[in-house]
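lol ok so funny story. i was supposed to be doing the assay writeup but got distracted and ended up predicting the structure for this chain instead. priorities right. anyway since i did it might as well share w the group, maybe its usefull for someone
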Amino acid sequence: MAGLDEDKSPDSAPDAASDSNARKTGRRRAMDLKCSLGDVLDVSKGGIRVMTRNQIPVNCEVRISFLSNASEPFSMLGRVAWVHKHGFRKFECGFEFVSPQPEHIALVRELAATHQPRTFG
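and the output, tada:
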């Protein structure tokens, strides 16, 4: 497993012209997964994408809490990397984890794994 310190600063993130869907780490879609800020859309080792009703400024650091039936509640610090407005009081936000503990990343990914979209066919 690669080290957590492989994530680069926001200055080294790819620009929008190169690949609008570029990721520093692999992501996992989530379905019916919630955190203290709203609905979690996907999770990666480096952060999460959330649909929220709150407009949070870019670079703002917030505490993100998770609740699971399988574990004790836990929280992580996240920095807003980007925000896209989706209608009235609906915002899609990308959060980068700030100094995440490996066990918390494992718990978030485990939660996402139990909330995977189902495929038929």
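Strands lie at 27-35, 38-44, 47-52, 61-66, 74-85, 91-97. The longest strand covers residues 74-85.
back to the writeup now i swear
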